[in-house]
Amino acid sequence: MGGDVRAGVLPEGQSIRMGLIGLGSMGRHHARVIREVEGMELVAVADPVGDRHGVAGGLEVLPDVEALIGAGIDAAMVAVPTYLHEEVALALAAAGVHTMVEKPIAATVEEGARVAQAFTEAGMLGAVGYVERCNPALLEMRRRIAAGELGEVYQITTSRQGPFPGRIADVGVVKDLATHDIDLTAWLAGSPYERVCGQVSHRSGREHEDMVVATGRLANGVIVAHTVNWLSPMKIRQTVATGEKGAFIANTLSGDLTFVANGDVTSSWEADRQFRGVSEGDSVRYAIARREPLRVEQENFRDALWGRPSDVVSMAEGVHTLQVVEAILASARAGETVALGG
């Protein structure tokens, strides 16, 4: 998993002149965080519908991406609606502006592939904003999995449920919410998806799906399952990785990580001696330093711009996640498992 995200970096320590396009529900948070990150300076903002959240401060609200480029920026954060990602990102690549695009990379795989190719050909840093990778519980889970504390990973399951967010108008729950789970699962396991099967439901009267249950297998053999909706009165954000030594349980709402170890099983039933089972062993809840994920994400982008080692999400990974998303939707339409090529 991954791609070249260190091409075209800036001199380390150079103040990064940042531009932000899209001042909506996500853009307002990016504006605040960019202003807080050492080494970044928010010098230009743009949104054709204005600044309804009042985040521009003393900056002029520019009308479009061309005006943003004209402000002389080094890098940009793209937080416009998904259907505009390709148009805006291609303009930034052509202008030689390093860019992070909010998830998903684009509205379709074809659009995402064009965006990724444009940044590669321009030799510019292109990244995708999957903020869940910066959640403290998931960062700690990944570190401990990499250290071998879970042993071989067998299964990763996620649950992402809650009420409908009024900010979403152009996509369904798969491209909005499930895309997080697909990205973080491949990242935790260190493997792309091999095949998926999806079931969706339309219960809210909207054009797009509002519920999905998806299962699948990664290329390294890990099996996965995702339950995602925005029609639940309960807000749930949970990721569970089960392996040969036990299970990690991450609550990404609270940032908590718990490990439940396998206990010993002794069976006295003669016929059951061939079965290797487990029981619930010791449980440990880890004390984790909790930093705002969006700030960590922008610091990662800054470090990548400076050429430092950084765990930003490459555009190649963003395209793969979109391929999985579209495979889940295709599976739901066809009623069959869909294999992913390559």
Explain this structure:
- The N terminus is likely disordered.
- The protein folds into two domains: 133 residues, Rossmann fold; 170 residues, Dihydrodipicolinate Reductase, domain 2 (2-Layer Sandwich), CATH 3.30.360.
- Helix 1 links the parallel strand 1 and strand 2.
- The chain starts with 15 loop residues before the first strand and ends with a strand.
- It is built from eight helices and 16 strands.
- Helix content is 30%, strand content 28%.
- A nine-stranded mixed sheet has the order 14-13-12-11-7-10-9-8-16. A seven-stranded mixed sheet has the order 3-2-1-4-5-6-15, with helices on both faces.
- Helix 4 packs antiparallel against helix 8.
- It is of the alpha/beta class.
